[in-house]
TrEMBL record:
Keywords: Glycoprotein, Ion channel, Ion transport, Ligand-gated ion channel, Membrane, Receptor, Transmembrane, Transmembrane helix, Transport
Family matches, as Gene3D superfamilies: 1.10.287.70, Periplasmic binding protein-like II (3.40.190.10)
UniProt name for this protein: N-methyl D-aspartate glutamate receptor
Record domain Ionotropic glutamate receptor L-glutamate and glycine-binding: where: 40-105
GO CC entries: membrane
InterPro entries named in the record: Glu/Gly-bd (IPR019594), Ionotropic_Glu_rcpt (IPR015683), Iontro_rcpt_C (IPR001320)
Keyword Cell division among record annotations: no
The encoding gene: GRIN
Chain ranges passing through the membrane: 158-177, 197-216
Amino acid sequence: VTLIEHPFVFTREVDDEGLCPAGQLCLDPLTNDSTILDSLFSSLHSSNDTVPIQFKKCCYGYCIDLLEKLAEDMNFDFDLYIVGDGKYGAWKNGHWTGLVGDLLGGSAHMAVTSFSINTARSQVIDFTSPFFSTSLGILVRTRDTAAPIGAFMWPLHWTMWLGIFVALHITAIFLTLYEWKSPFGMTPKGRNRSKVFSFSSALNVCYALLFGRTAAIKPPK
């Protein structure tokens, strides 16, 4: 069973003899009744073809080429028809419609078309590996609104920001203590330094590193 979806599956009319000079002969009977389908295909392959010509179409496209190549490689024959209700398949009123309904009802053994995989369908039918990917998007106009002053904090949760600033101040405390204990450090008292390294200096260094800036002080030892 297939479904018309350009550029994967196209259809054109058959010639005057009911044949397809190019493409694959398929039926468009507007039904998914397996008994009617079996009868139509039996008549199609018999010497006395009574299938109405309006049911006959020529199917072609990317998916049809793929199906023909698969049949050639795996050595099987197939009859092709277009799904009766023109639907992909959804759970509605207690049963599946479209391609999925034809597969579950036994009208078809395989569905060949552009067929999206979703959770509901994958629970009732098996899909092949994806052979084509698309990227769909929606464009909307941006709102002309001024960002609030705290917008830069939106990327992280407030608990993360709290942890960052607590860790920053703890780092500044230890940086100050290590600088005071260093024999070459700029300690606040006792070593006659022209400049001293205080807790505020450590905070200045830590905040400069946090925001990617340079601190106008002599770096700690």
